[in-house]
Amino acid sequence: MGMRRRWNALLVIGAAAVLALASWRERAWSSSDAPEPPGGPPGPLRFEQTLDVEVFQRGNLHTHTSRSDGDSEPREVVRWYRDNGYAFVALTDHNQRVDPAMFRDFEAQPNFVVLPGEEITMSAEGRQVHVNALCTRATIGGGDFPTKGEALSWAVGRVRAQGGVALINHPNFDWALTGGDLLGAPAAELLEIHSGHPYVHTEGDAARPSHEALWDTVLTARGFVGGGIVGVAVDDLHQLVAGSNAPAAGPGRGF
């Protein structure tokens, strides 16, 4: 299988995992005997009503806007993904959750959904550790931690406590995370194994493994059945507007 087709297949799996998990949790919370989730009562079952996770869905789970270090307003970013054939996008600005309610008018187009998201941005042991909180209900924020393991455990735990899905971002950014670090976060459901950002070392280097090799390490140690983690490809969009001389983290690269 060619590299591009491989990323496409992984993105399909990741999209289905995120939406199916979010949909299942929404159904669980709507049960009369289920406890109310952190952050308030659940909203309508929008995911299963809007997207069919049994078929291919094109989407992006790592996206920045001018609310953090992106170059464009949230509505412009959402418009690009909506108008370029995507079924969903998660806006994941640093340490602030974007409420998808502000884009309801955009979702008049069939089969397009804006997912709530946030990039939990932390530092530990002199390195940057980032985890995307997907389908959560309130901002989590980041912080400084003594160890990378504590940072991952804290972030993933906060995401899961809100019924969300945790995506461990770009392990090789800042050469932050090893296979051992990833194995210390067993509750994380998704792992970035390809990023469109030019500075996150997706392919590793002569001395350090690629994101895909790190994923292999985790799968081998956990086992594919019951303990696996889904690999996804993302844009990590920062630059929607062309014109910079620096390599751009633009849209449409993870797919």
From TrEMBL:
Residue stretches making up the Polymerase/histidinol phosphatase N-terminal domain: 59-124
Superkingdom to which the source organism belongs: Bacteria
Molecular function terms from GO: 5'-3' DNA exonuclease activity; 5'-3' RNA exonuclease activity
Residues spanning the membrane: none
PANTHER family assigned to the protein according to its UniProt record, in alphabetical order: EXONUCLEASE, POLYMERASE_HISTIDINOL PHOSPHATASE N-TERMINAL DOMAIN-CONTAINING PROTEIN
Name this polypeptide is given: Polymerase/histidinol phosphatase N-terminal domain-containing protein
Organism from which the protein derives: Sorangium cellulosum (Polyangium cellulosum)
Source species taxonomy: Bacteria, Pseudomonadati, Myxococcota, Polyangia, Polyangiales
